[in-house]
Structure prediction request, 244 residues.
Amino acid sequence: MSSAPDQTSRLLRHERLVVATGIALLVALSWWYLADGAGMHPMAGMTGMPPPFAAVVLMWWLMMAAMMLPSATPAVLLYARVRASRSSDPAIAATWVFVAGYLAAWLVFSLLAATAQLLLTGPAMAFDNATAEGAVLIAAGAYQLTPLKSACLAECRAPAQFISRHWRPGTTGALQLGMRHGVYCVGCCWMLMTLLFVGGIMNLWWIAVLTILVGIEKLAPRGESIGRVASVALIGWGAVRLLG
Prediction:
């Protein structure tokens, strides 16, 4: 009969597969929720009444999960691998604690984004004038070239260095580690997320394009260089909107 430690070790060895499957399901459910209208009442746009704040926050949060979790998966799986390699250490929290911390950082962003949406956009949930669109495009492109963007992107692109440098034991430590990684991701991508106000918050094609751009920046061998090319394109597009 297998001992309890042996069973625990065996479970932890399979945890990465379980975590990867769970993340894939969460992302798929988030995309389904967005494709289904994100719980927005179909008459909201026709009556001019804004949707409930809680519904907007949930929409943004699940949208962030759908867009950001794929590129954060290497860090999550690396945490699970560290946990599996230290199966005898009871101070290492479950991987989902790390994920919860990561999503908590994006929840804070979602609260701010939902507030901005309700204050700055109409029933279409996007800017309706070229000046606002051009300003956001130029601001997003310019932010791509800032040292803050580069510093945050570097943390996102090097999950092994991030985890080794910021590791803390226990449940609180795992939660803080996940939140810190989420904060770096927010710092890296928040201006790109404001482009949803330009392309349309419920425009699935636009959401997919931004998701791909974020993934390239974080995971591709020369992702940071591609991000700089995107910055030039965004600034040029914004100038056309302002001058047109």
Summary: The chain has a mean pLDDT of 84. The chain has one domain: 4-243.
